[in-house]
Every structure is written in C-alpha cells, then in structure tokens.
Amino acid sequence: MLFHYIDLSWRSLKRTPMVSTLMIIAIAIGIGVIMTSLSVYHMMSADPIPSKSSQLHHVQLLTLDEERTWWTKDDMPYQVTYQDAMNLLSADLPYRRTAMLKAGFAVHLDNSDIKPFIEQARVASGDIFSMFNLEFIYGGAWSSDDEESAASVVVIAQSLNDKLFQGENSVGKTINLDDMTVRIVGVIKDWPTYVKYYDLNNGAFREPEQVFLPFSLVAPNEIESWGNSNNWKAQSNRNYQDLLNSEVFWVQYWVELPTHQDKEAYASFLMSYMAEQQKIGRFARKELKYALRDVNEMMVYREVVNEDNKILVVLSFMFLAVCLANILGLLLAKFLRRAPEVGVRRALGASKTQVFIQHLVEVGLLGVIGGLLGILIAQVGLWGMRTSNSAYMAIADMDLTMLLAAPVIAVSVCILAGLYPAWLVCRTTPATHLKSQ
After folding, report:
1. In 10 A of CB 51, how many CB atoms?
2. Do residues 263 and 194 share a domain?
3. Which residue windows are transmembrane per the record (predicted)?
4. Is the same domain home to 44 and 66?
5. What's the pLDDT tens digit per position in 6-49?
6. pLDDT tens figures, 83-102
7. pTM, whole model, 2 decimals?
8. CA gap 247, 281 in Å, rounded
C-alpha cells in the first residue's frame, strides 16, 4: 500500500509542477539555511575526545593577592606560572600530566631543495601523546631520560613528515628549529581534532601544531611563548630566568584523572600545594582557590560556543518556520483544489484514514526531495564559510549525523505543515462533490 501511495504522490507532484517546484524550493532553502548553521554549531559543541573527555582535567590556580581581581568570570587565570607547572610536574603522583605552551620556529634542513618555513610547535611533557590519544606512525614519544636531561629530540606530525621526508620513516634523522638541531624520535598521525580544546587561548578553531618538543627544553633554550602571557603584578623581568621565576601566567597544565576518587585526591593535593606555597609568601589570600575542569567543562567555561552561534541557530529555525508557513498555504490551495477527486474516492469506498495517509505520504515525498536539495544548498553555504574565514576550515562541514538529520528534519517539517490540509481534505463530503459532477 505504501508504494501505491508513493506512486500516487509522484503523479500528483507531476500534475502540478509549478506548485510542487515552489514547495520543494521553499523546503530546500529552509533546510539549507538551518543545516548550515546547525552543522557548524554541532561541530563546535561536539565532544572532541569522547573516550577521555571526562578524565582529562585542566588545572587553574588562583595565585593573585587578596585585593587583586582577574578579567575572567571567576577571577581564575586561564594558565599557570612556569614555577607552578614545574612544581606540579615534579610531584610524586601516579597520574599522567603535562605542562605545555605554544611556540614556533623556522624549520629547515641541510638541504637546498627545501626552503626554510615557519611552523608552530607544542612544547609539552612526554605524557601528552598518551593523554590525548595521539597515534604514532613511526617511533614513539621521547623517553623519561630524554625529558630529564633536556635532550634535543622532537616528534613531528604526519603532514610535516610528508613535506620534509616524503612520508618515509624519519626516526633518527635531524631537523633544524631556528639554530637548534633536534633528532626525530617519532612521527604521529595528524592530531584528529577540529577544536583546539587543549589550548583555547588563541582561538578554539586553529590547526593543531606539527612539532612537539620536551617541556624540559624551555629553560635551557629560552623558548619564547607564541601564546598568551599575562602578568598581574609589577616585576622586573630583565632576563629569561626572571621570567621563569615570575608570576606571569603563560603555561597550560593538564592532568589525567581516570576516576572521581582520583579527582578528589588530586584536588586535596592542590590545596596542600597552595598551602605550602603560602608559607613562602605566595598565594596571599584568605581562601585558597583552584579549578579542575574536564574537557567539556572547559569548553563551556571558555565559551567555545558563544551566544552569537546560538542566536544564529535560533534565527535559522525562525527562517524555516517562515518557509513552513508558505508551504502550508500552498498545500491548502493544492489539496482543497483536489476535493472533487477525493469526494469520488470516498464514494468508491476509500476511508478518511486512507485519504489522510495518502496526503501525508505526498508531503513526506516533498520533504525527501527538498531535504536532499537542501543538503546541496547547505554544502554551498559551508563552502562559503570555509573560504571566507580560515577559522571555520575544520568545523564548517557536515558529518554523517547532520547528513542524516537533513532529510529527517525536512520530512518532519513537511508532515507538520501538511497535517491540517490533509485533515481538512479528508473530511470532504462525497455527496457534495458527486452532485457537482
């Protein structure tokens, strides 16, 4: 019976090509607009590392003096000082952790065929690879001995390895970062994330770094941060050592806490650490304060999806509602014009339910066609966003969920618009129209 209704619906659409085309276009434009905004919102708000997002925690410490305030909503600095990062790293605890910062270097080889180029780098502890599920193609992470001795080693990403070594196993080879020669110990697959959740300071939608260096290289090589550096007190940083000893916030710190009990234990450790630091003149506050936020909590806290994105989604639904109103008017005109035909069918034995279902199948078919066309319109819209703003390069895309959602939304909207016209026409009195024939 369903196939019979589909056949009738297709014939009906062909009998009124102009009206059918107008309805399909209205549906397609509405779906195209809403799927463009909804796809971006979906990619922005999706969990970037679902297998571990509840285990990875970002550490924030309120080191400001009592009378000082910060520009965040809770006065908590986003980052920690270098000395706090080193103290937390050296603590005798069984948890994976990493201090990290953004840097950059001129990458070059002893090869005239490859010109030097600037590449961003992530200076981090060796646990970063296991914590964030980074997969190695060749080699592995640097060893704890390399970390402790500040060995000149590096891990590079697949894209950079392709560029420098044509994708070959480059473990053991050397590259130059500015005037520093480093040995490659591993090659990872490109970091599969579209949201830079591990460092939101310079924008959430940036390409992940291609170069990874041990955090122990920061001090001996005086590595400059390419990220944010913020200070809250007047200090004379005349040299690099002064910066390391200062109260400047310029390091991110993450710790992996697999269970709730681990999080409580680490929270107790942070309170004890701050109390110890208070004894030597730091953390001069009546109430010690810290924050341990997991990945999704951090994304909400940093407003990765801001109010503008939410408003855009609401406006796109309002636009779809306008399209719905236009479709409703066209369906009313089309179905009521068909009332004599429906009267004859009713007289021949068709029930109200059968007539109602047939018309809903017809509007459902409109929805399927409009939804598929809407996907194409949405792809054009997403392409325009990618080309106009590089920050949307990774997130202006439709994943499988959104591709499946488009026709579902289109069919649902069309059925919603067709309920009243279908109900109205199925109530047609056969005798009225039989007398007029």
Report:
1. 8
2. yes
3. 21-44, 311-336, 356-382, 402-426
4. no
5. 766 777 777 778 888 888 888 889 888 988 888 888 888 888 99
6. 999 999 999 999 999 999 99
7. 0.80
8. 12
